């Protein structure tokens, strides 16, 4: 087939598959087949870039990073809604409006945006901002798979409004990953979605797997409509992912549907914080108009938090994918916020001790953030006489290894290197790019190998046979050979990669590199005590203690012995450091001709230190174009400032 025809066919097919998967939730082909088609399209577009389509699914991976978001003036204002908090207030609103028909929709707790299409092509997307002026986040919105980049049979111009959200499962996975990296956790999915949509690098937004629901037609050239529900049906026909709605004609029906949405809220993949009631007639909307703050034809019913009493029957300990032991309360079933609740979060030992929660207590329970049930307090006058304070176990309930409390927080973690609860997370980290870089071992393949009993610890990777790898695909001979080669190549990695791959807490890429260079071999590092480790630059007392505890664990020793027996390199391959920058601390700011990471690596290779903030201990600030607050602080403190050329001149 001619390249143009094949590119046209692949673009059309893959966009159809995306619509089926992301909008209809009804995938029609296996993920692997989709990935192979997408890879073929990427290859063809690289060979024939002039033939690529603007709506190609390859454009969703994220474009170039931007330095700032341009302001966008909304042609049609993005109004906020009047909040009502009780059935009486909602009834008053309905009495004032007196509409013949209403739509009732779940109120998605996300970030409102406007999408603009010209001749069916997405040309701009903007945040709500203050309703009149928002920010241009087109590049980030293009990464959302449920947003069509091109519409068939579209009007000349179309502007729609939607709510961007992060699905709950995606949010939970994101927070797990952030916890692994030692980054602060997002408070809730809405904050995570807002932060993702305003990333300066669209590739970051693409990895966050955001979603959207369209809930309003702002402008549609060449077409007219009589009812809001009609516009939603029209937008759905354009393959947009549209908010679900219910038509109601009486106040009683509206109140019933509002209650129904509350009861069904846990069934949505997104958070809601209420229900939206809108006048369906567009003509009546025009007559009612808007106040200075919100339209008179719509209201948002906010669900009040519901609190009930129940009995705490048991406290179970769960071991998460990061090794944290989390207590979970098993309670007598109780109906709460429309759902049957049988368990609640207890957070950690500090939370339990602070509220003096004991098994057998009668507790008051509610849904935190209207999502996760949590215990508010104990009804002390109903406490049984034999109730005793609860204490967390000293050994992991999954693998029996000792547990340890984080020095910098309330979390209690399993110290086992081979804990079953952490198995998949450990293996995913071990094979990741910055670790052992075993290309091709995806999460799904690792899960299948674990389920087959072929994979328990990272050492098992090096015992996998070609037959075991080939069984992962129907015709897996070629793929098995590639994967075998990738696993074999990883044996020759530098010690620093292996140290990072082991997943020792607070040993990131930089610390692993420092440790490998200082000790030279795994054997030497295994013998180091906390005092020796703390004396090393960039290794603090907490990191040192984590290292000592990890190496002292019998599971860790067994893992290292097996890796070494499999032929995995245990020595540093780096050249000895230079000393030109020994004792000097550099801070990099502004745009340089190469990535800052490369410059930082040069500094560290010459014995210097690359810091992220300016202080009196800073030796030099290297300032590129558009340098900001760090340059200003350096000037205030009298720190020498170097241009990139001046820095290059210092290199030996």
Protein described:
There is one protein chain. 36% of the residues lie in helices and 20% in strands. Helix 1 (3-23) packs antiparallel against helix 2 (31-47), helix 12 packs across helix 13 and helix 17 crosses helix 18. It is an alpha+beta fold. It is built from 25 helices and 22 strands. It is globular and about 80 Å long. It has five domains: 3-61, Helix hairpin bin (Helix Hairpins, Orthogonal Bundle); 71-302, D-amino Acid Aminotransferase, Chain A, domain 1 (2-Layer Sandwich); 308-382, Nucleic acid-binding proteins (OB fold (Dihydrolipoamide Acetyltransferase, E2P)), CATH 2.40.50.140; 416-574, 5' to 3' exonuclease, C-terminal subdomain (DNA polymerase, domain 1), CATH 1.10.150; 585-650, Rossmann fold (3-Layer(aba) Sandwich). Strand 13 and strand 14 (339-345) form a beta hairpin. The strands form six sheets. A five-stranded mixed β-sheet has the order 2-11-10-3-9.
**Count of the separate structural domains:** 5
CATH topology of the largest domain: D-amino Acid Aminotransferase, Chain A, domain 1
Class of secondary structure makeup: alpha+beta
Main sheet strand line-up: 2-11-10-3-9
What would CATH call the class of the largest domain?
Alpha Beta
What is the CATH homologous superfamily assignment of the largest domain? DNA ligase/mRNA capping enzyme
**Strand content bin:** 15-25%
Mean pLDDT: 88
Count of distinct strands: 22
Report on the biggest sheet: 5 strands, mixed
């Amino acid at each position: 087939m001619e390249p143009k025809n094949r590119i046209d066919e692949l673009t059309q097919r893959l966009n159809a598959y995306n619509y089926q998967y992301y909008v209809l939730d009804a995938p029609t082909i296996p993920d692997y087949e989709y990935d192979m088609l997408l890879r073929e399209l990427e290859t063809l577009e690289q060979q024939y870039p002039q033939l690529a389509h603007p709506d190609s699914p390859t454009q969703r991976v994220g474009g170039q990073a931007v330095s700032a978001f341009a302001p966008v003036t909304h042609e049609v204002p993005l109004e906020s809604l009047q909040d009502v908090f009780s059935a009486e207030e909602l009834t008053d609103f309905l009495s004032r409006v007196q509409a013949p028909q209403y739509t009732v929709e779940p109120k998605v707790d996300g970030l409102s945006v406007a999408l603009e299409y010209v001749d069916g092509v997405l040309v701009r997307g903007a945040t709500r901002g203050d309703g009149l002026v928002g920010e241009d986040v087109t590049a980030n919105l293009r990464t959302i798979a449920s947003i069509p980049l091109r519409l068939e049979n579209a009007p000349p111009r179309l502007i729609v409004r939607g709510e961007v959200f992060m699905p709950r499962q995606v949010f939970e996975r994101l927070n797990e990953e952030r916890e692994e990296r030692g980054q602060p956790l997002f408070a809730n999915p809405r904050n995570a979605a807002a932060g993702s949509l305003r990333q300066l690098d669209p590739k970051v937004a693409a990895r966050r797997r955001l979603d959207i629901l369209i809930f309003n037609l702002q402008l549609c050239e060449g077409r007219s409509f009589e009812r809001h529900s009609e516009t939603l049906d029209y937008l759905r026909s354009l393959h947009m992912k549209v908010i679900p709605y219910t038509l109601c004609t009486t106040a009683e029906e509206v109140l019933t549907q509002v209650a129904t949405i509350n009861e069904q809220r846990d069934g949505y993949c997104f958070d809601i914080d209420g229900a939206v009631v809108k006048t369906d007639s567009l003509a009546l909307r025009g007559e009612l108009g808007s106040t200075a703050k919100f339209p008179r034809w719509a209201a948002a019913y906010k669900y009040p938090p519901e609190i009930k009493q129940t009995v705490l029957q048991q406290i179970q300990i769960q071991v998460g994918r990061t090794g944290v032991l989390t207590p979970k309360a098993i309670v007598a079933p109780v109906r709460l916020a429309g759902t049957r609740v049988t368990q609640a979060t207890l957070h950690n030992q500090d939370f339990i001790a602070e509220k003096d929660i004991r098994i057998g207590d009668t507790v008051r329970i509610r849904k935190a953030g209207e999502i996760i049930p949590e215990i508010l307090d104990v009804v002390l006058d109903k406490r049984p006489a034999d109730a005793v304070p609860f204490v967390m176990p000293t050994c992991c309930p999954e693998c029996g290894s000792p547990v340890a409390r984080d020095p910098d927080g309330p979390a209690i973690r399993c110290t086992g290197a081979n804990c079953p609860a952490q198995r998949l997370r450990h293996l995913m980290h071990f094979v990741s790019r910055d670790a052992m870089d075993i290309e091709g071992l995806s999460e799904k393949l690792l899960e299948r190998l674990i389920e087959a009993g072929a994979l328990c610890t990272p050492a098992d990777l090096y015992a996998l046979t070609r037959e075991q790898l080939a069984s992962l695909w129907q015709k897996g001979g070629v793929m098995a050979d590639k994967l075998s080669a990738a696993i074999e190549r990883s044996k020759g990695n530098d010690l620093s990669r292996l140290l990072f791959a082991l997943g020792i807490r607070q040993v990131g890429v930089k610390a692993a590199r420092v440790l490998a260079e200082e000790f030279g071999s795994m054997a030497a590092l295994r013998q180091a005590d906390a005092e020796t480790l703390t004396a090393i630059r960039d290794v603090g007392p907490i990191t040192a203690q984590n290292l000592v505890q990890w190496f002292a664990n019998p599971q860790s020793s067994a893992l290292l012995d097996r890796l070494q027996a499999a032929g995995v390199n245990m020595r540093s391959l780096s050249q000895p450091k230079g000393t030109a920058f020994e004792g000097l601390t550099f801070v990099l700011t502004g745009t340089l001709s190469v990535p800052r990471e490369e410059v930082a690596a040069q500094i560290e290779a010459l014995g210097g230190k690359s810091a992220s903030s300016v202080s009196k201990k800073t030796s030099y600030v290297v300032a590129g174009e558009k340098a900001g607050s760090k340059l200003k602080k350096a000037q205030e403190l009298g720190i020498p400032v170097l241009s990139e050329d001046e820095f290059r001149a210092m290199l030996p």
